[in-house]
Amino acid sequence: MTKVTPKGRPKAKTPYKRYFDGQKDTETGDGDLKHVKVFSKNRQNFTGDFISMINKTKKPRPQKAPAKPTKEELEARPKKNPIPKEILDKYSRGEQVQPKGVKTRHFKEQQTRKEVYLEYATEQAARTELLLQETAGQLQADEGETTAEFRQSQIAENVDIQSSAKHFNLNMEFGPYRMRYTKNGRHLLLGGKRGHVAAFDWVTKRLHCEFNAMESVEDVQWLHVPTMYAVAQKSWVYFYDKKGTELHCIKRLNRVNRLDFLPYHFLLAAGNSAGYASWLDVSIGELVGNFNTGLGDIRMLRHNPRNGVLCIGGGRGVVSMWSPKVREPLAKLLCHSTAMSALAVEPKGQYLVTAGLDRAVKVWDIRMLVHDKPLTHFQLRLPANELDVSQRGMLALSQGTYLETYSDLLSGGGSGDGTRLPYIRQRCDAFVHGLRFCPYEDVLGVSTAKGFQSLLVPGSGEPNFDAMEDNPYETSKQRREHEVHALLEKIPPELITLDPQEITGVDAPTLQEKIDAKRKLFHLKAPRINMKSRHKMKGRGGTAKAARNKQIVKDAKRKEFIAEVREAKKNVIKQHTADEVGAKGKAKTKAPRSVLDRFKPKPPKKQKT
Amino acid sequence: MKVKMISRNPDNYVRETKLQQHKMPRNYDPSLHPLEGPREYVRALNATKLDRVFAKPFVCNLSGHRDGVSCFGKHPKQLSTLATGAYDGEVRIWDLANRISSRNFVAHDGFVRGIAYTQNGGRIFTVGDDKTIKVWKAEAPEVGEDEVPVNTILSKFGLHGISHNRRDNKFATCGEVCAIWDERHNDPLKTLKWGVDTLHTISYNPVETSILACCASDRSIILYDQREAQPLRKVVLTMKSNKLAWNPMEAFNFTVANEDCNLYTFDTRKLQTPLKVHFDHVSAVTDVDYSPTGKEFVSASYDKTIRIYNAHHSHSRDIYHTKRMQHVVCVAWSLDNRYVFSGSDEMNVRMWKANASEKLGVIRPRERVNFNYQEALKQKYAAHPQIKRIARHRQVPRHVLNAQKKMRTVKEKEQVKEANVRKHTKKSKKVPYVSEKKKHVLKEEV
């Protein structure tokens, strides 16, 4: 029965039978015995019959592994859980770097490899969208209704108890109030013109402190933690803690009108009635910038959260943007032909909203300052005196005692009607002096001449907070921890620029700089040469000879320099003319050629003189 | 009217008991994390500063030798064992984990010139100035027994170095000739000779195991093959090379430590020009050893410092020195890539961390993640001038600083002179520009 393997075939895996193998084979009988798999001892302790013992035959192995899909096939295959493009775009940090301009092959490859990781990171970040716990609020009108006609009491009736508790009024008697929420939206600070300062946890309505400063209070502002705040009083700025204890009196900030705080830079920005803009570093207590803006009394001041630049609205309808280390404005924007009345920056730092006495409200894109037209332009019946934009892009504006919110910054209007009715409107009992959306809540805080109102605006706040940035539920221990980390990564004030990503970019000269460099070539002066002649011990020297040598060297250097500059100039001119000629030449050849052109008369030859 | 407001259930955001971790809901939306670039930059700056703050590379000092340390032998299997030989003929075996010398014996009259472990770590070969090769057991003798060599081979020639083959039981010695030995025979299998000069160091290639390289006192580096009867190739530099180390991962590359304060990395296939010249030492380089990853190497110098280089960079990444360390004679990189050993003239063996700011001991996963993040940040922002300045700054001993200044002036002077010569030579007789790489190689012979 032994088969002889043919020559060409590869060797059989099983070795040839030896004499002892044969013995076994005969004992077991036929070769086609089934392989019995015996289970471990504890599994063998069954009470049933032996008949039920499982006979498992070894499965024949699949002949060939399926061929690996090629790269094209893999790419063509749809991904398992595709992410919608708009979500990917939300998390993306911009377009991929094209390796085309990268110089060496090594760096090209490095760049392409990096892009793979970045793409993966974007995808992973986009996938976390699934884990977000909350959804944004919303208000929808039924048939025949508009959202504008809903009263606050109606909304408060229809929402859950926890939310309806967020609508409340405070009647206070110490004059026009200013107000601020903390960055995490948990605490509220009120400052009355006639000296009343109150800080409280507005969610639980627990009062931290309340006192009268016995001086006029111009503005209030929370600092980096909800245990400290600054109050701009009649002459100076004071720091208080949560209990109302005076911590500091900053006499270098005097007659301040408006306060703002840059949380990542730890800078308290102040604008005073003499037109000075000042930045106080609250971690070291030093003024990092303090200069006269020349704008006169500063009444409108907001910082751009995207880059930390301070936007100051002036009386001439111009918004100027300031950085503490640059004494000139980084940019100026002529927004209104009349005086401005209010100013707000969107929390994402994309848009600037301005209102003027010309009763217009304009929305500007402040990432692209080259456009001289606003993105949107609303015309109101009265000039808006306060403005604010919520985290999800809702606009709130007040005209005296009347208050409107729009569901979208750019298109305006409520959701119920297309005729640009406001989303929610409200008439307050007194003149509105302050208006702020509460971060991470669907609440709009309004401070008036007679007190404070907390209004419900469904869909205004970001529902999902990031606990590493702002946590409304943080404990005191977490707060301390967060403070330390925030201090460790305090951004130096020098890095406040219009483009916050400038620091990650390549420092390449712009076209303007290149042109300037070329232009400069034509006005260059030879540098002054300070030669120090070597002190020679040997040989005949003397001051006259030394001086002559010096002059020779100087002249030589100067000549060299002039020759170099001349050469450079020549090159520039040559290039310039070549470009022009090339452009002209191209224009000539560009004329469409036809087959019949050869029958045209030839251009006359130039006569030799 | 349909209305919905954000109304968070605090149970989802506040921990129930103090035994739990705080709940940290995340939202990776870039608009909630403004100023990404500047914040990352500040973090990178802090990471670089911390890196310098924690840069404490010195681990311990192993003292016990009664004369200067001359050579090292790394155990191929045990990380905690190191053999060192001294000028007085004494060999010490160190238990690095406990920082003690576990065994010592006098092996030779005069210097111990080289120590090599067999490929399984069972035996130790030592060569000395007394023209003998001695074989020792790797384990310490029983209590009461004397230290006796398993075998003593008397060589006809003087011996200056030894290297053991990585794969089979052959080893090679150098001296007046290069000799290939079998462990079981008392006579060399083969002797290879090129010229009359002494060979003072020898090294087997770790991958292509029959290739050897030697440095000779006629300033040359010679390549041998143990299977061939003749040497392969020879390259002559301007000055003598002291030691040679093969790159364990890119085994066609090797680095030599040269007398002229530089190290040269060569590609075996192209010996005319070195791949890289490594500068920065201010005195003769005495020893070099590669890290097991092949990405870095450490060099010892007569200027009392050791430096760590990236294998493909010309300037050193780090410099280690102490006040008491004298001329460093030998250096070794541990096989777990974490430590560096240096042996110096003042009888001490020192242990250093290969990465100066690395944290020793157990590292928790969160800590590890943080270290990785910091590393990535440092890399990303490495080109920024402030970060670069902090990362590059090293405090060096005064004598090194002075020597550096001196070398710089000498080099500048030479450059000026060359420029002047070029300027005042006729245009027809051109003075060629010679690259720094090509300056140091005199010729290659086959």
Structural notes for this entry:
The complex is a heterodimer of chains A (609) and B (446). Chain A has 609 residues and is α+β, with helices and mostly antiparallel strands. Among the domains of chain A are: 84-94 and 112-129, no CATH class; 152-495, Methylamine Dehydrogenase, Chain H (7 Propeller). Chain A has ten helices and 29 strands. Chain A has helices spanning 19-28, 41-44, 71-76, 85-91, 105-127, 152-158, 161-164, 476-488, 511-521, 543-589; strands at 138-140, 168-171, 177-181, 187-192, 196-201, 206-212, 217-222, 228-233, 236-241, 246-254, 256-262, 267-272, 276-281, 286-292, 300-303, 310-313, 318-322, 331-334, 340-345, 351-356, 360-365, 376-379, 386-389, 395-399, 402-406, 424-427, 432-437, 443-448, 451-456. In chain A, strands 2-29-28-27 form a four-stranded antiparallel β-sheet. In chain A, strands 3-4-5-6 form a four-stranded antiparallel β-sheet, with no helix packed on it. Chain A has a four-stranded antiparallel β-sheet with strand order 7-8-9-10, with no helix packed on it. Chain A is extended. Chain B has a domain at 58-353: YVTN repeat-like/Quinoprotein amine dehydrogenase (Methylamine Dehydrogenase, Chain H). A five-stranded antiparallel β-sheet of chain B has the order 15-16-17-18-30. A four-stranded antiparallel β-sheet of chain B has the order 2-29-28-27, with no helix packed on it. Chain B has 446 residues and is of the alpha+beta class. The relative contact order of chain B is 0.11. At the A-B interface, strand 1 and helix 6 of A face strand 1 and helix 1 of B. Strand 1 (138-140) of chain A pairs antiparallel with strand 1 (2-4) of chain B, so a sheet runs across the interface. Chain B: Belongs to the WD repeat DCAF13/WDSOF1 family. Chain B: One of its GO terms (cellular component) is small-subunit processome. Chain B: Residues 410-421 have a biased composition (Basic and acidic residues). Chain B: Residues 437-446 have a biased composition (Basic residues). Chain B: It is found in: Nucleus, Nucleolus.
